[in-house]
């Protein structure tokens, strides 16, 4: 059965994409630990991060750095967090978010009822930042 992320990637479920390329996508999570929290996800379904081939893992890390720089700039974050949890959805994903304190790394502290308009605004800020950083070719309209 396809994962929820595959359904988002395929457009069956809406997603607020900020990055798309042939191997990976990045989109905002609907339950952010801080504003700007997004997920970097490979297009191919891989359950556990240690099962991923080195080239794909390297690409995901590269995308995470690029979108992380954009989020840091867009939200004036002091630091960026990166987390691979792997328990919520059986499809590898990297959490990238403004890290304000160690509590930020606890996904159980995620907001549950963020207004869709707020998430849309956050996605637009990150897309603008990615374009400003020179990544226009990977920023979806």
TrEMBL record:
Gene3D superfamilies recorded: HIT-like (3.30.428.10)
Pfam families tied to this protein: HIT
Transmembrane segments: none
Motif interval(s): Histidine triad motif: 91-95
HIT domain mapped to chain residues: 4-107
InterPro entries: Histidine_triad_HIT (IPR001310), HIT-like (IPR011146), HIT-like_sf (IPR036265)
PANTHER family, per database record: ADENOSINE 5'-MONOPHOSPHORAMIDASE HNT1, HIT FAMILY PROTEIN 1
Designated name of the protein: HIT domain-containing protein
Taxon lineage: Bacteria, Bacillati, Actinomycetota, Actinomycetes, Mycobacteriales
């Amino acid at each position: 059965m396809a994962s929820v992320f595959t359904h988002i990637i395929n457009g069956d479920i809406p997603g607020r994409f900020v990055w798309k390329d042939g191997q990976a996508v990045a989109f905002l999570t609907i339950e952010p630990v801080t504003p700007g929290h997004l997920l970097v996800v490979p297009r191919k379904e891989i359950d556990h991060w240690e099962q991923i081939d080195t080239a794909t893992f390297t690409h995901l890390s590269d995308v995470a750095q690029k979108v992380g720089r954009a989020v840091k700039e867009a939200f004036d974050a002091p630091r960026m967090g990166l987390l691979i949890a792997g328990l919520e959805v059986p499809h590898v994903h990297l959490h990238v978010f403004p890290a304000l304190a160690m509590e930020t790394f606890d996904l159980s502290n995620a907001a549950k009822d963020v207004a869709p308009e707020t998430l849309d605004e956050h996605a637009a800020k990150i897309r603008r930042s990615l374009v400003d950083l020179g990544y226009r070719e990977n920023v979806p309209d």
